[in-house]
Amino acid sequence: MGSLPVQTSFDVEDVLSQLTIPEKVALLSGIDFWHTAPVHRLGVPSIRLSDGPNGVRGTRFFNGVPAACLPCGTGLAATWDTDLVKKGGALQGTEAIAKGASVILGPTTNMQRSPLGGRGFESFSEDPYLAGAMSASTINGIQSTGVSATIKHFVCNDQEDQRQAVDSILTERALREIYLMPFQIAQRDSRPDCYMTAYNKVNGTHASENPRLLKDVLRGEWGFDGLTMSDWFGTYSTTEAIKAGLDLEMPGPSYIRAHLVNQALGCGKLLVRDVDERVREVLKLVKKTQALGIPENAPETTIDSPETSEFLRTLSANGLVLLKNNDNLLPLDKKKTTAVIGPNAAYASYCGGGSASLLPYYAISPLDGIREQVPEAKYALGAPAWKALPLMTRLSKTKKGDHGLTMTVFLDPPSVTNRKAIDEVFVNKSDILLVDYKHPKIKSSLYYLELNGTFTPEQTTDYDFSMCCAGTGKIFVNGELVVDNETHQRPGNSFFGAGTAEEIGRMKLEEGKTYDIKVTFGTLPTMTFSSPGTTGFGAGGLRVGLERKAEIETEIERAVQLAKEVDQVILCAGLNSEWESEGYDREHMDLPPGSDKLIKAVLAANPNTAIVIQSGTPVAMPWLESAPAVLQAWYGGNETGNAIADVVFGNTNPSGKLPLSFPIRNEDNPAFLNYKSERNRAIYGEDVYIGYRFYEKTNKEVAFPFGHGLSYTQFDIKDLSVSDDGAEILVSATVSNTGKVDGAQVVQVYFSQHNASINRPKKELKGFSKVFVKAGQSEKVGIAISKKYATSFWDEARDAWVMEKDTFDVLVGDSSANTPLTAQVKVLRSEWWRGL
Ligand code: BGC
């Protein structure tokens, strides 16, 4: 593609009037994974879109240019700090510019119906108000830099199981009050430039061709006048999608527009006017982003700085939630002897899996972070908790001595003698998704790779080698075949469901001896089976792992021994990007095999053990009674380990609050019976009773309620006063820090209707404010709340919101389970409304 030399602005209507039909048709789809189509003769450049939602990856899944990684969605929402989250958005905007991207594909604003959602970590909250506030803050931050945000996935992409085929079946009331509400709030408060449609159907029609959602609600009721794009390979029709209002098919090259649009124009199923409506939005977006001055095909750069690190450390630490802290076990004393134990300690679980993942500038593991503050802290693995073996590139070295592997690319299979290499690439992460890998000589998705490196073990023991792939491959150690994922392949859920199960081979290796490793790979077309719904996986990919054999029992014994030798233990357990990922949901809510046993054993060996859990969504904690202290640490981005250490040792006073309830068991969750695609449908049977709305209504005990989070100090919230001018309710209160350390508290405001004409949740969050208060001092907070949003429910009979004539309690406190302050407001006359 030639580039446009000078960035000049253009007039949208003028360009539209001059475009030929082929040019218009071209503008309706991307040209590759990440770029829109240009029309150079009329001064319309191609612009770059990049994932979102917790950092900006750029144009390469594999071997990307390193980027700043923010905490995952739940970790951000757990800060309950709209200013901080807005700054996070602004950082993403700046990062996007460094990556030459004009549009960020984020934030993700779906809902956690169940703890099992594979992408639950990406979204903010089970509460639509909190999710909406966090989305709006992120979008305002991103768009303050001139970069466009794409709120996604519109709407009801709340599970991964059969995500393209599943029909999310729900009442109009649940759709409005729970699932559309975060988008509605974001639309009202931040006007995102773009929306990405969901993969799934909503009540019978796919979101990407759903006129009710795209035309009636989004553009009609909410007045959205920006661009809608499909999720990747989520455009399923030509005419219907265009007519419904889907502007841009992504990615390209087009598989369902292009000549099919010509055909539809030819037979009159589409009129040029239909196409013009869509093209106009593409042109408007391109024109808007031109102010950024990003040249076409801009190089991708890094802008890491100490300020970014410092900000990310604060952002991550502020989202950590102190769930339990009996007898003030935390913060720990740096002077005491300390052990760091657990599967998440030495491995940095900085981000969930799938399109949210990116190559971070760096990632601090909890062990690194803790040793930074207590250098002599001892370490034991405790239990291997990986779902797939850790990446080989942690341990392997290239000829030059760098950690990683050397990848050579061939057009011919290994059977061709003297085949010529067309590319040689250094790989520092042996998780290689080739969908957006480009090389001028590669003209089809069929080609071959070889990865080479060496490995020098630190112990004489058995080592496990592994491979899962969307393609075929083998691993050889010193010429000996150790893993064969070619001859017999088993379907699995790797590579967004397109790939195989992980095949593992074991070999005894000797300490200090250097072994040659060779991995051979044929791309996706060589695979011996194909999975449905994996359109666009092009060349596929491979993931190669290596780790010493670790048996749960032996590792636990070692950990217990270590725990007995020290004054205090930090036990880091949880999930990672293999357990929580786009492409599949979790099978259960438990920690990985061995972890619960480890935690129980270590707690018995040393009662001064603080448990740190890293997960994007709730996990079961069967050992909770015996654990004195539990810290929920999410996936914290680059600074994960430093943020954990800061809270564990008290440099940061924790102030995070849960953005979602932690049920005791998955069976307690309201979506338990309906969280799966059953022959392509998922019934949202819990209706509006998602999360705490259900647990409260049914008086079900939870492990930790929505909004909960402790501090190293104590707060008193008092002097509640509420004023009401008919449109806005102003809630004010005083927060006193009655303890000995400075800290922050979140004042949470819930509304509850006295005599609703229909069944409503006991209470619903409608406002909050986080306030920092110095020890011994007090601060006043004022929270302005839209009265109609705070009081209304969706009236299905009138197809409108209604604020009913009634009295409403305004309940104020520091969690959904603790709202000791009450005031009342009245709605004097029932009123129905639509729109924003
Ligand atoms: C995800 C989107 C993402 C897109 C591009 C899809 O698989 O659902 O959220 O933006 O890929 O990576």
UniProtKB/TrEMBL annotation:
Q: Name one Pfam family in it.
A: PA14
SUPFAM superfamilies hit by this protein: (Trans)glycosidases (SSF51445), Beta-D-glucan exohydrolase, C-terminal domain (SSF52279)
Pathway it belongs to? Glycan metabolism; cellulose degradation
The PA14 domain sits at 400-560
Q: Which reaction equations make up its catalytic activity?
A: Hydrolysis of terminal, non-reducing beta-D-glucosyl residues with release of beta-D-glucose
UniProt-listed InterPro entries? Cellulose_deg_GH3 (IPR050288), Fn3-like (IPR026891), GH (IPR017853), Glyco_hydro_3_AS (IPR019800), Glyco_hydro_3_C (IPR002772), Glyco_hydro_3_C_sf (IPR036881), Glyco_hydro_3_N (IPR001764), Glyco_hydro_3_N_sf (IPR036962)
GO biological process per UniProt: cellulose catabolic process
**Protein name per the record:** beta-glucosidase
Q: Which organism is it from?
A: Cladophialophora yegresii CBS 114405
